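Consider this one:
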Amino acid sequence: MGTQQILLIVLSVIIVGVAIAVGITMFNNNAYNQSRSAVAAELSSYASQAVQWYKTPVAQGGRGDVALVSGQQGTVAAFIGFTGGSLSTESGTYQVTTTGDNVVTMHGLGKHAKGTNFALGTTVINFPAGIIVTTMGEYAALPTIGG
């Protein structure tokens, strides 16, 4: 009778351990997916603000539909509200990385990892047409955006 009870206790401990491991994995995956969605949404919001800046008249602090050239990341970032060229929120870190030929590229890096991979979003804005394309991928380490 004692052997059977010990066997049931060991089996119970194994089942509880597996259930805890599955629960932790599900929680981490959910946090990663939420971070990924939030990064995509915030990048789209910042891209819309950049298009607004491009179409706003110069007299009102915008670009006034004037052609955008390389090296104006700071101007775009300042209008959106980034300080020091980047912005950190609860869901990620964002930066205007390149400008040129009426195109601006922004990157956003999520703060939650799935394994060693962090959500990395890239948004490309084509100003004359107002086209915004956001793609999501993964980055296999925690890089420093804006640092």
Notes: Strands lie at 86-88, 92-100, 103-114, 117-126, 131-139.
